[in-house]
Amino acid sequence: MALEITDATFDEVVLKSDKPVVVDFWAAWCGPCRMITPIIDQLSTEYEGKALIGKVNVDHNPDTSFKYGVRSIPTILFIKDGEVVDKHVGVATKATLETKIASLI
Q1: What is the share, in percent, of the chain residues with pLDDT greater than 90?
Q2: Which of 21, 29, 60, 68 has the fewest Cβ atoms nearer than 10 Å?
Q3: Where in the chain are the domains?
Q4: How far apart are CA 21 and CA 35, in angstroms?
Q5: pLDDT at 51
Q6: Which CATH topology does 3-102 take?
Q7: What's the rounded Cα separation, in Å, for the pair 22 and 2?
Q8: 69-90 pLDDT per residue, tens
């Protein structure tokens, strides 16, 4: 299961992580977000110990969403060493996300 990340925990959990981080910005009412939730959860299990996979609910965490310019969801940020190195907006296949994660590890 992907880690729930909030405005309060984002800096500590994501920006200070010694592993690459994948952050899925989502909302409960978003159909495409619900479509990729099982993929995000699978990736969090498969990459445990290699990368951190987390989710930010945009409705509950507007500050982080605003800071990273999230205007459409799902938006997935790929962060390494505290910097956004890649971004995907919209639904993605598991293979697409795996390729992006592999490039960070």
Answers
A1: 98
A2: 29
A3: 3-102
A4: 20
A5: 96
A6: Glutaredoxin (3.40.30)
A7: 10
A8: 999 999 999 999 999 999 999 9
Task: Find the length of the chain.
Answer: 105
- What are the tokens at 87? 């971004």
**What mean pLDDT is reported for the chain?**
95
Backbone angles phi, psi at 55, to 5 degrees: -130, 140
Q: Residue 19 pLDDT more than 90?
A: yes
Q: Residue 84 forms beta bridges with which residues?
A: 79
Other Cβ atoms closer than 10 A to 54: 22
> Quick one: tokens of 30?
């978003």
Q: Is 58 helix (H, G, I), strand (E, B) or coil?
A: coil
Residue where the block lists tokens 């445990």:
48
Decide: helix, strand or coil at residue 98.
Answer: helix
β-pair partners for 68: none
Residues with catalytic roles: 30, 33
Is 1 a residue whose pLDDT tops 90?
no
